[in-house]
Amino acid sequence: MSVDCPEPGALVAQELRRIATQYRESPKLIHLIRTYLGQVEEALRVTCAIPSFFDIDTATGDQLTLIGKRLGWPRCHCVCTVQPVYGIACEGVVSEYTLVGFCEEGIFVNCGPGGVSEICITDDEIYRGFLRARRYQFLALFDVESLNAALRAIWGDDAFVVDGGNGRVVMTPGRDLTDLERALLPLVPRVLPVAPGIRQRFHFTGFPILGIGEGWGGFCEPTFPDGVIITDEFGNAITVPDDSTGAGTGDEAALITGPLTQGAQVLCEVDVFPYDCP
């Protein structure tokens, strides 16, 4: 219950103090007043507690559903339905199609009808993540920090904005998605705080991502886990000069530690078709 709600009996006691002195020796009158005021107080306390059942962080079931309706994000949404397509899946690559072999029931690309179906988010925690992201969109918070926060509300702490510019933004979950998360992919761009007119693209194929600069991976660096001290061929720790002294040895040198990256993946910008069929 909210800390702002009155404690049991507090309002009754406050009102009883207002009774005129000549009536305070009448136990029956006091009992009558206490009884009726107690009912009024209980109704007030119940009413006061209602908002606590609609906290986005703690609400469950129907309460969470009602929050979603107020935010304009219900549990159920229409999505594109595409028949299984003949093809071969590449390891780690997300396809917009459900790929099947030639001995299974499927169609060739562009040779079969698409349709729509309804997908519902029944899991409260997954739905809660979408609602948290929806708050940023609802408030039109179109900055990168808000977009990162919305992504992490849906996919966890590994998600982030990879790149942007030229009228598009590229995002990634930073990990492999579960089958359920893949099924919900068309809903993600619908709820993210991205300004109208900006194209939303996603990277799924692998990490680290190939690029130049801090945070990007390269082709040929050796791979080391975090915290490992890198040594030379004689087993001596490799150091670099400390910025303040220019020295390169002893306590004034900084040790080179991991991680470094190897075999980074090329940035692959995927459209997940949130509103139409691929």
Number of beta strands? 9
End-to-end separation? 48 Å
How much of the sequence lies in strands comes to 5-15%
Low-confidence stretches: 244-251
Helix percentage = 25-40%
Total tally of structural domains:
2
What is the mean predicted local confidence, pLDDT? 80
**Overall shape:** elongated
Q: Using only CA atoms, what is the Rg?
A: 30 Å
Order of helices and strands: HHHEEEEHHEEHHEEE
Summed up, the helix count is 7
Largest sheet: 3 strands, mixed
Structural class: alpha/beta
Strand order of the largest sheet: 5-6-7
How would you describe this structure to a colleague?
By secondary structure, the chain is α/β, with parallel strands linked by helices. The chain folds into two domains: 44 residues; 167 residues, no CATH class. The chain is built from seven helices and nine strands. Strands 5-6-7 form a three-stranded mixed beta sheet, with helices on one face. Strands 1-4 form a two-stranded antiparallel ribbon. Helix 1 packs antiparallel against helix 2. The longest helix is centred in the first third of the chain and has 23 residues. The radius of gyration is 30 Å and the shape is elongated. The two termini are 48 Å apart.
Question: How are the SSEs placed, and which strands pair?
Answer:
Layout: H1 10-16, H2 27-49, H3 61-70, E1 76-82, E2 85-86, E3 99-100, E4 114-120, H4 124-138, H5 144-155, E5 160-165, E6 168-172, H6 179-183, H7 188-191, E7 199-202, E8 239-241, E9 253-255
Parallel strand pairs: 2-3, 6-7
Antiparallel strand pairs: 1-4, 5-6, 8-9
